[in-house]
Amino acid sequence: MNTPLWDDQAWAPLPRLEGAVRADVGVVGLGGSGLAALEELRALGVNAVGLDARAVGAGAAGRNGGFVLAGLAKFYHETVQQFGREIAAGIYRATAEEIQRQARELPGVIRLEGSLRLAADAAELEDCRAHLAALQADGFAAEWYRGPEGEGILLPTDGSMQPLARVRTQALRLRKAGALLYECSPVRKLLPGQIVTDAGVVHCDTILVAVDGRLEKIFPELAPRVRTARLQMLGTAPAPEVSFPRPVYWRHGYEYWQQRSDRSVALGGFRDHALEAEWTQDAEPTDYIQQLLEWFLRERLKVRAAVTHRWAASVAYTTDGLPVLEEVRPKTWAVGGYSGTGNIVGALCARAAARRACGAESGWAELLARAAKR
């Protein structure tokens, strides 16, 4: 147990860091964010090295629900209320553009079939109407939906991905371009100008830590506003008895599922049913949440196919819903705390941090800074 549905086992491990290497920037974390940072640094002509405690995508980047959604964790009308229309629209527009960019760069990995937010009850149905009205008022694509899955909002520019395939593709491209990437190289110390592992050290001018879950463990100074949670999922064998053409958010996003091209179903949720227990850095699935997921799979989704995979991942939430993107210590940057929406927001934050670490401007970083002042 604890192997994601996405893992096809077709991965040749990368080397472990042994000895000393030199780079302008050392990137800690080889998930979607860390790899995006490395891509941006390469585009800027900066020499960078990346490393991870485990394998590429072994954390939440390769274990999430595979949703490709515009916006932050809160729905758009809530973001407008919190940060104002101008900032909310800027954030939504930037994430929508990032979706299109990733889809162009990763054809076959990302599918832009749209997404559904479905209401679980009458109160949520009214909230969906407020959500839709806010999106349409600012010119974003959205429409009311009523279909076999339920009733709510269709967001036609969203989509889904195979998250582990995404990060493995990115890593292989970087390696082919000559980037130095190291797996199974847990960081033991972050010192000024040094990243120390069990068997090696990266000497670098700047450090960029791109880790979502357990970010507050690496940087205790972030603990007042960053907290790690466990998200649990299960996956099935092909289920031809059901059809979900688009990924679905249900009950304010607490439950979420998608059906893959082979008809298998990936389902996550029910964190709020054991909320205190799920605020944990433990990333092992539990019987209680898994039983709830399987009940929902059978009773609500009507899936009869066998459950083949059960897994969990650590993700970090922030108190204000804004991701972390800052120079935590001199020449040491941190990105993370995506509140469950790291596939798109994480890439934007990492590329922005890479630019800022090199003294370049970043519209995304400026937008988040304005939001933080509200």
Describe the structure.
The protein has 374 residues and is α+β, with helices and mostly antiparallel strands. The protein has a domain of 161 residues: FAD/NAD(P)-binding domain (3-Layer(bba) Sandwich). It has 10 helices and 19 strands.
Count the E strands. 19
Mean pLDDT: 97
User: CATH superfamily assignment of the domain at 19-63 and 163-225 and 320-372?
Assistant: FAD/NAD(P)-binding domain
Question: Do you know the CATH topology of the domain at 19-63 and 163-225 and 320-372?
Answer: FAD/NAD(P)-binding domain
Q: Which blocks of ≥5 consecutive residues have pLDDT under 50? A: none
CA-based gyration radius:
20 Å
**Name of the CATH class of the domain at 19-63 and 163-225 and 320-372:** Alpha Beta
Distance between the termini: 44 Å
Helix content: 25-40%
Q: Could you list some keywords that capture this structure?
A:
single chain; 374 residues; alpha+beta; FAD/NAD(P)-binding domain; 8-stranded mixed β-sheet; 10 helices; globular
